Amino acid sequence: MGLVIVVILINGSLAFACLYGAWRLWQWRSDLVQLRGTIGDAEQQLQQALAKAPLVLLQGQLELVTVRQRYVLPWQVRLQQTRRAIALVSFALSLWRRSQPRSRRSKRNRPKAQR
Q1: What is the largest CA-CA distance in the chain?
Q2: What is the chain's alpha carbon radius of gyration, rounded to the nearest angstrom?
Q3: Are residues 86 and 79 in contact, defined by beta-carbon separation less than 8 angstroms?
Q4: What stretch of H or E contains 110?
């Protein structure tokens, strides 16, 4: 009779362990179902957000073009005008130096020992 009790206890323990394992698997399954729903919701929200991305990028590019036209292009024109003015002044200065008498220019160009 003692052996029968041992077998029944072992069977009961195994049954309880299997029941506990099944219960944990059932909980794990319900957690996975909930996680799948959360991931699905996140995917939908991400798709909605990314669907607007091309439009947002295009708007950003258009704004960049507008800023460039408003600020960069006028500065480039002013820079070009300034360079032309400097070149004109430089040319006028070289013409003015050529028109000066040689005696005044030669004093400036002479080495210090001869002065």
Answers
A1: 140
A2: 45
A3: no
A4: none
Single-letter residue type at 50: L
- Per 3-state DSSP, the chain is made up of helix, strand and coil in percentages (nearest 5) of 95, 0, 5
How many Cβ atoms sit within 10 Å of the Cβ of residue 89?
10
Number of H-type helices and E-type strands within the chain = 4, 0
Phi, psi of 113 (to 5 degrees): -65, -30
Instruction: Tokens for 88, please give them.
Output: 């004109």
DSSP state of 114: G
Written as tens digits, the pLDDT of the chain (115 aa) is: 889 999 999 999 999 999 999 999 999 999 999 999 999 999 999 999 899 899 989 999 999 989 888 888 888 889 999 999 999 999 999 998 988 877 655 555 555 665 5
Give the C-alpha separation, 18 to 90, whole Å. 98
